[in-house]
Every structure is written in structure tokens, then in C-alpha cells.
């Protein structure tokens, strides 16, 4: 019995040794090298701030105020100014000047000339306005002379507004002068009925 037990013990020991040797050896995990990039994350750049420069100065227009004003000459006014602003900049009209025919609320344009109390000539430009020149020419019983009348004087005629008055001036500029009252019929906007109302109130020189 002792011999048999010894043989069995030796067999068990041999089996354990064989089983231990047959197991695979553990493999160590591979090491991944760490590469330094040399880049550091810094703070984000500050956002660009809007420009805080000085505000733009308002646009100016240059107007020539001439005639019967206290301080005639060149005045500089903000864009969008009106005739009343130009008169104020020139010291106001002289005493006794009639301004009833003047549109004080009219907008001014750059380079314009405003004549106060002085009649504009027949060839005055579009940028020139005569104001305060009194009643229309009265050489023939107060009739308006089609060849010398200003825009404001034509506007005093019955049924003639600023648009039609400008058309009369445009016709005169295109043809040189009126040689007959009947030529009013050639102006756009003047039909027979309106011509009948005007022919006894105008004349040609």
C-alpha cells in the first residue's frame, strides 16, 4: 500500500508540472513613445473692437446771397438748409424789401445764388433765384413780360404753378425769346382754355 500511494503521488506531481509548463507566457504590452510637440495652448486673442474715431462732420453747401441783404456774400450752410437759413446767415433782408414772393421753405442746393430785391436777367441760370423784386413789370398796364419774367413772377399768373412756370422758362431758353403771345400754346400744359386766361395778362417785349 505504501508503494502504491507513492506511485500515485508521483503521478499527480508530474501532471501538475506538465500542466504548468504548457501555459503560454504573458506578453508585456508595447510602450508607445510620447513625442513632445512644443505647442502650448495659450489664451484666445482679444476680439477686435469697433472704431471709436470722431464722428463725421455734416456736409456743407456753399450759397451766394446777393442783393438787398445786410451782409451779402458767400455763406456756408449744412446740407438740407432752406432759403430762410441763407437769409439769416446773410444778416437778413434790408429794410423795406418785399419777400412775399419768396418761398422761404425751399431747399437750397450747393453753388446756388439767391438774389434778394434784385430782378434776375432773362438769361439767369437755373441755380439763381430772384426774391423780393416787387410786382411784375408794369410797362404795359402791369402785364408780365414773357421775355424778362422770373419764375416767381410767372407763378403769379392765374393757373400757373411752379411746374408750368418752369416750362415757360425752358421754352424761352430753348427758342431764345417769345416773339408772339400765341407761342404760349407751344408750351406743354397750356391748352386753349388756359391760354385764354393768360393772353390778356402777358406781353412780349
Automatic annotation (TrEMBL):
In this chain the Helix-hairpin-helix DNA-binding motif class domain maps to 152-171, 182-201
GO MF annotation list: DNA binding
Q: What Gene3D superfamilies does the annotation carry?
A: Outer membrane lipoprotein wza domain like, Photosystem II 12 kDa extrinsic protein
Q: Which InterPro entries match?
A: Competence_ComEA_HhH (IPR004509), Endo/Exo/Phosphatase_dom_1 (IPR051675), Hlx-hairpin-Hlx_DNA-bd_motif (IPR003583), RuvA_2-like (IPR010994), Soluble_ligand-bd (IPR019554)
Q: Which GO terms describe its cellular component?
A: type II protein secretion system complex
Give GO terms for biological process: DNA repair; protein secretion by the type II secretion system
Q: PANTHER family from the xrefs?
A: ENDONUCLEASE/EXONUCLEASE/PHOSPHATASE FAMILY DOMAIN-CONTAINING PROTEIN 1 (PTHR21180), ENDONUCLEASE_EXONUCLEASE_PHOSPHATASE FAMILY DOMAIN-CONTAINING PROTEIN 1 (PTHR21180:SF32)
Q: Would you tell me the protein name for this molecule? A: Helix-hairpin-helix DNA-binding motif class 1 domain-containing protein
State the species of origin.
Carbonactinospora thermoautotrophica
